[in-house]
Amino acid sequence: MPLRVAIGLLSGAAIAYQLLLMRLFSITQWHHFAYMVISLALLGYGASGALLTLFRQPLLKRFDFAFFWLAVLFGLSTVLCFAGAQRLRLNPFEVMWDPRQLGILTAVYLLLAVPFVCAGGAVGLALARFGDSIHRIYRADLVGAAGGSGALIGSLYLFRPADCLRLVAFVAGLAAVVSLFDRAGRGDAVGRRLGARRAMTAFGCAAAIALPFLWPPSWLTPRMSEYKALAKTLEVPGTEILAERSSPLGSLAAVQSGRIPFRIAPGLSFNFVGEIPEQRVIFQDGEVATVVDAGNSGSDPAAESPAYLDSLPAALPYYLPRPQSDELRVAMLGGSALALALSHGASEVHVVEVNPQISEIVSEELADFSSRLYGDPRVHTYSVDARGFFARSSRFDLITLDVGGARGIGAAGSLRETYAYTLEAFELFLESLFEHGILALGGELSSPPRSSLKLLATAAEALRRLDLDPPRHVIAIRSWNRFLILVKPSEITRNEIATARAFCENRGFDLAYFPEMDESQANRFHILEEPEIFRGAQALLGPVWKRFLSSYKFRIAPATDDRPYFFHFFRWATLAELIKLRTRGGAALMDLGYILLLTALPQAAVAGLLVILLPLRIAYSSTLGAGRVGLYFLYLGLAFLFLEIAFIQRLTLFLAHPLSAAAVVLAGFLFFAGLGSGASRRLDRLRLPGTREPLHTVLGAIVVLALVYLLFLPAVLARGIAWPVPAKVALALFVIAPLAFLLGMPFPLGLRNVAKTREELVPWAWGVNGWASVLSAVLATLLAVHFGFSFVVAAACGLYLLAARVAPR
Hints:
Layout: H1 2-28, H2 34-54, H3 56-61, H4 63-86, H5 99-129, H6 134-158, H7 161-184, H8 189-196, H9 198-210, H10 217-220, H11 229-234, E1 239-247, E2 250-257, E3 279-284, E4 287-293, H12 316-319, E5 329-333, H13 338-343, E6 348-352, H14 356-363, E7 379-382, H15 386-391, E8 396-403, H16 423-431, E9 433-444, H17 451-465, E10 474-478, E11 482-487, H18 494-507, E12 510-513, H19 532-541, H20 545-551, H21 575-580, H22 592-619, H23 626-655, H24 658-679, H25 694-720, H26 725-743, H27 746-757, H28 762-787, H29 789-806
Parallel strand pairs: 5-6, 5-8, 6-7, 8-9
Antiparallel strand pairs: 1-2, 2-3, 3-4, 9-11, 10-11, 10-12
Helix pairs in contact: 1-2, 1-5, 1-6, 1-7, 2-5, 2-22, 2-28, 4-5, 4-7, 5-6, 6-24, 7-8, 7-9, 16-17, 17-19, 19-20, 22-28, 23-24, 23-25, 23-26, 23-27, 23-28, 23-29, 24-26, 25-26, 25-29, 28-29
């Protein structure tokens, strides 16, 4: 029993470390490293199988002490390897032109895999030592990991990520100590020797538990990339962090700059001659989240907004004529232009922000600075995602959405799931407007245009789905570095076009599109070589939109809930041209997250071959039957992670945040898979007609249930998307439970069959499964980007069917 408790603690620490690395990489680098973290964790587990194969007999002879030291080394390496990786100065932006960065990326990849080698070695050693209790050990492993994922999320609300790293190392030391009591409580010779040495190991135990709290803070504090906005800002003399917050949703910092004031006014008209007020900036994970302007000292802080706000493209919707009404209901996805809405007579402003700590900072530390703008009775704040908010809200006159840019998503987050920018989201937004309401989409201009045209393509398709004629429902304008697209459920009127003309004329903005616009009216103030947005809008809103989507140099087809990668613009057809231009600005046009994912796939394959399969092949070069065993566990490793990652990505929409989805899915999958593993021992008599043994029955049931989920899961989740977070988590776990329970059975059932007939192949099976999982973590994401989550689930079903054909008996 103590051994299984130790395994649960160690597995919980390992999964917590994996999730914590995702959070730390979001701070130090960017979100796109999340899938590399999953891959390197599984690389470590796979490598542990190879080490167990090569040193199986000596480790089994000294099992108690080997397990103890592997747990201790895991705790030590979590800190040491993270500290070492931070000192390697990885700069992903240089990968395309500096080959040394590929070497550094590989070094980081291998270094961070070391802790997982130790954790995987301890669990794999227990599986090899107690073959008759595989189902119990595997259950302890999975249930412990499930608890670790939940505990990590809770800890991130209470502690900083660096302190959570100490806790992970502490739990690993605790697991090492608990493991000593397993054999010591027995009366055999090993137990008596261990009891006699207990005094000698006391110091080591105390050190294992206490050492994490003695690490220097400089070793653990995340070192933010010098290319992140916050890192560059703090280099300016006179900058000061006024407030900080940390949670699983992000690390926030409110900053003031005394010597060189902030002047953040996206797309400000060159005709503006006034002053921009003093500003404070809130950064999330090192990128700009929102800007807070100094308020006035009058009794009504919102009576007069800063004058510069009326000279931004974002002000256009407030000038368009609207039906006579005393109410102007506005929904803002982010609250940077809150004062602008209030000064133009908004009767209600609903600010939707996933991270509630942003509103807390504005309402508390920055309350006096902003003249308590968030305290205005017309302002309502919501800590939910956009989809959940509109699923339960009434209609609005104006919905504003700033796409990327201000939140630093852009190229660095090309593989971030952005469910607020999908086709289904735009349909929901348009349905949430009054008849004469407006959906305002703002963003940064790029050359060649990408985001602007993708938004136009998405809006056009959403209008078609609502049986509306797209060319009659869109206005687009641009300044020197920003665009604004207005989409209406009702047709654009001549009065609105005239108002937009006057608005742009006064501010020196260019009209990019309006119904029946002539090309000569575009490109007047901020002259481009070609009026690309106008021509793109004409094509995307008109009858030739399909041809334009297929021929454009970048991927601008609408993102969907099945493929929610709005910022993935990369096309293979343009790769050769971009490589030629990489030293002249072409590298900036590449999707960094996608390139890194492509880089990670061969890295994972080669590293896995070298540290997992090659040692195993050497050890078993003359063993018959290893190939069939290897295929079975290869298919299992690929399929299990395919389903797990597909669920993480699908539930990101439902639970509103990638880390929350990862934690819930991992906890649910691992916990219920652990229960399934424990129950697998009782399946000896379960056989369906036409099957040879219980294993085939389980594999068939997994395929059937996964296909049922594929057909009905989106509809089930849609019904609960507006629920409170606890209820959503409960529904997610309820949905996960049946499939995860079955997924926990094929591995122990297959491994038990191997242990009965070829016991020496148990480490081989463990290692091959680990190597497959390394590939699966990256491959599943690539398949989702290109073909969608539904394809990933279907591929998993095919792999389980293949596993049934080669299942060990």
